[in-house]
Amino acid sequence: MQYAPSDLKPRERYKVLTSFVLPRPIAWVTSIGETGVVNAAPFSFFNVFCEDPPLCMFAANLRPDGRIKDTVINIRRTGEFVVNMTDEPLARAMHDSSGDFPPDIGEPDYLNLKLAPSTKISVPRLADAPFSMECKTWKEIDVNGDRLLVMGEGIHFHIRDELWDHAAMRVHMERYHPIGRMFADRYCRTDDRVVFPPAEGAKTAV
Q: Which of 146, 8, 143 is nearest to 66 (CA)?
């Protein structure tokens, strides 16, 4: 089966991409409004893609009624945000935060999520997140006027203590249970893992 993207409606393209490009990591982005209300919204068109400098990117589209999302409004005003990762204990709250909240009602407050101050920016992080990355806006790319690609530079990391082996600089995978995004209302656990021996590359005769 084949499709030319130009033959599909945008919603149909979305369904194809999100059905096969999975599981996708989820950026649970906290930002702060002009009146001090803290917003927390999940975005699954997201990933990190550079370590020097540490850069991440997520895509925020317009609301169905054409309004700009609070996250984008807040980031454009402050140039700051926090990317919080989600694990199984936080998964339902993350999903619930994707609902429609007016600007004067912050998702963390409404969902009883604990906040903690960031170190280098004014936007707070989610205190119980397994990993949080304080970000400054690095670049924005407007896509067709209805979607914004937000690139952030990570300027400070927060890691839940029991998840990290500082000496080895490696995560304790048996303790970390991240949630991935699939499509519609579907998510996935990531505990069924496969480990391969190191790849040897091409073998040549001596």
A: 146
Q: Which domains does the chain have, with CATH numbers?
A: 18-188 (2.30.110.10)
Q: How confident is the model over 22-31, as pLDDT tens digits?
A: 899 999 999 9
The Cα 204–Cα 26 span in angstroms is 42
Residue (of 23, 40, 25, 47) closest to 128 by Cα position: 40
> Is this structure's pTM higher than 0.90?
yes
Q: Return phi, psi of residue 164, to 5°.
A: -125, 130
Q: Count the Cβ atoms, other than its own, within 10 Å of residue 100.
A: 8
Task: Say how far apart CA 57 and CA 140 lie, in whole Å.
Answer: 9
Residues in the chain: 206
